[in-house]
């Protein structure tokens, strides 16, 4: 009987705040990796919000069980495929090898977001903007007063414990580079990662394609690259741009950044101050 009542549970602000101050809504991988990718929100298709809300104390990863479970869906995950291309290009530059045309596919199929891998994927906000194409936010959360309208949910993440949690895990794991996807979210990236006092400059990616400007910020041993999104008219749509992004990213990396890291799940969960 409990299963039938869960979709009608009304969550309090305190319950949601505690739930969001965790690894929920992050694709995961290895937080001990040198490279992090940060999006504004996770991709659609995650499990709908249902009780009881249990914070995710440890990150997930694309291990063998995960890849088997989603084997029929991964072909459609184009943004993740683009990240795989960026990382394959970075790895080729670090090892001074030529990247084959299908090398990104091998990286996607075998290395991306692995438990011991070279990257970690997180998101500023824990819930997708649309749960599915057929279920917009207004329908999904109309019965949740702390999530509807959507602005109330965004404010909860910014003013509550979600953004401090993101800053806390960054300070703990100290990635070399955080690639922030989508310059229109620059203010939220700056708030979540506490970048108000960071050293800032610009870098122009200009391969044989339309140039793209990256905002480069440095603080506390980490560099943030705020770049265009991976989709949309103004995004990093071409293979040429993705390869150039990977080659630029490689300047912060060394061969041992691709040789595996301490498994994240073996460590204690992050606790906020």
Labels describing this entry:
273 residues, alpha/beta, Transcriptional regulator XpsR
Describe this structure in a few short sentences:
The protein has helices at 2-5, 13-20, 64-69, 78-94, 103-110, 137-140, 150-159, 162-173, 186-192, 239-249, and strands spanning 28-29, 35-39, 119-123, 177-181, 199-205, 212-219, 222-227.
How would you describe this structure to a colleague?
The longest helix has 17 residues, at 78-94. Helix 4 (78-94) crosses helix 5 and helix 4 crosses helix 10. Residues 1-7 and 261-268 have low confidence and may be disordered. The chain is of the alpha/beta class. It contains 10 helices and 7 strands. It has helices at 2-5, 13-20, 64-69, 78-94, 103-110, 137-140, 150-159, 162-173, 186-192, 239-249; strands at 28-29, 35-39, 119-123, 177-181, 199-205, 212-219, 222-227. The chain is globular, with a radius of gyration of 19 Å. Strand 5 (199-205) and strand 6 form a beta hairpin. Strands 1-3-2-4-7-6-5 form a 7-stranded mixed beta sheet.
What's the SSE blueprint?
Elements: H1 2-5, H2 13-20, E1 28-29, E2 35-39, H3 64-69, H4 78-94, H5 103-110, E3 119-123, H6 137-140, H7 150-159, H8 162-173, E4 177-181, H9 186-192, E5 199-205, E6 212-219, E7 222-227, H10 239-249
Parallel strand pairs: 2-3, 2-4, 4-7
Antiparallel strand pairs: 1-3, 5-6, 6-7
Helix pairs in contact: 4-5, 4-10
Protein name: Transcriptional regulator XpsR
